[in-house]
Amino acid sequence: MNTAADFAAITSFVLELEKLKAVLRKNRPLGQTRFENTAEHSWQICLLAMSVLPHAAEPVDMGRVVQLLLVHDIPEIDAGDVNVYDATGRAAAEAKEEAGATRIFGLLPSATGAQMYALWREFTTGTSAEARYARAIDRMMPVLQNLNSAGQSWRENGIRIDQVTRMNHPKISGMFPTLWPLLEQQLQAAVTRGDLGPAGAE
Amino acid sequence: MNTAADFAAITSFVLELEKLKAVLRKNRPLGQTRFENTAEHSWQICLLAMSVLPHAAEPVDMGRVVQLLLVHDIPEIDAGDVNVYDATGRAAAEAKEEAGATRIFGLLPSATGAQMYALWREFTTGTSAEARYARAIDRMMPVLQNLNSAGQSWRENGIRIDQVTRMNHPKISGMFPTLWPLLEQQLQAAVTRGDLGPAGAE
Description:
The structure is a homodimer of 202-residue chains.
Chain A: H1 3-16, H2 38-51, H3 62-71, H4 76-79, H5 87-105, H6 110-125, H7 129-147, H8 152-157, H9 161-175, H10 180-193
Helix pairs in contact in A: 2-3, 2-7, 3-6, 3-7, 5-6, 6-7, 7-9, 9-10
Organism (chains A, B): Silvimonas iriomotensis
Pfam families (chains A, B): HD_3
InterPro entries (chains A, B): HD_domain (IPR006674), YfbR/HDDC2 (IPR039356)
C-alpha cells in the first residue's frame, strides 16, 4: 500500500463530494426558501432509516442500509437530480449515473472504489433486503416532507395522488406494510386540503 | 406497538431534523460562497470514514461508525455549531447539547430514542474504537477542506498551525498513525503559502 498516493486519492474523492452540496432537489427544507441539496437529503434519509426499523417486514443490517443510502445519490454530481415523477428524465439520467459512478468512485484507491461502486450498484438494482429497505426510505422522505409542508413540491410541480401512489406504493408497502395505509390516509387528506392533485386530473 | 402513534413520533423527529440544514459551520463548500450546514457535513464525513478504513490502526465496525457520525451533531439544532478552536464557546455549548439530545431524541418512540441517544453519548464520550474512529474523522474533514481551499476558514478566523495541531493531532494520530504525518507536512506547506498562521503568532 502506497499510503501517500492512497491518501491523495481519498482526498480527491471527498473533495469531489463537495459538489453534491450544490445539486438541488425539488423540495425546500421546512422554514427555508432555498431548495434542499442532495447531500443533506442523503443524511436525513439515513436517520429516517434508523428510526423506522421496528416497522420493517424483514430483518436488515442497518449498518449496510445506511451505507447504501450514503452512496446512492453520489452519481448525481454528474447526472443531476431528476424528479421521481419525470419518467423521461429518469430514463435519460440512467446512463449518466452509471458513467458518473464509474468516474467518481474511480477517484478512490481501487479496492475502496470497487466497494463503493458495489454499494451503489446494490442500491440501484435493489435486490438485497437492505437495498429494498433503502429504496423504500428514499421514497418515504419526500412524501413526509410534502405532507407536512402543505404539499410544497407537489404544488410547484403539479403532482397528483395517482402519481404519488404509483411511484411509491410498490417500494414502500413491501417493506413497511403497516406504514403504507397510514401514508395513504394522509395522502387522501392532502388531496382534500388541496395540497395534492386529485386522481387523473391532468 | 401503537403503529400510528409511533409513526407520528418518527415523523416529528425526521421533520425536526430539517433544522440541522440551517445550522451553519465556518467553512464554505468548494466553489460556493455560502457556508456549509451541519446536515451536509454529517453526510460527507460518513463517506470519508468509509474511504480511509484501510488506514485505521484498529478494526472497527463501519456500520456503527457511520451511525455515530450520522447522529453526533443532531443536538446542534438546539446548541448551534461552535468552532472547534473556540474553547470558551465549546464549554458553554456542552450543557445545551446534552439538553438538546434529550429533547430531540425524545421525540422518537422511547426504545428508538434511547438507542439514538446512546449512539450520541458514545460518540461524545469517545470510549469505543468506533467512537474514536468517528471523532478522528470529524476532525480530519475540515482540515482537508482548508488544505484545499487556500485555508478559507482558517484565514477567516485567524487560525494558527499550533492550534490545528493541538486540537487535531491527539484524535487523528491515534487511529490513523500513518496519515497524520502526511497531514502535518501539508499543514507546514499551508503555513508557507500563508493559508494558515505560523505557530504562536497571536
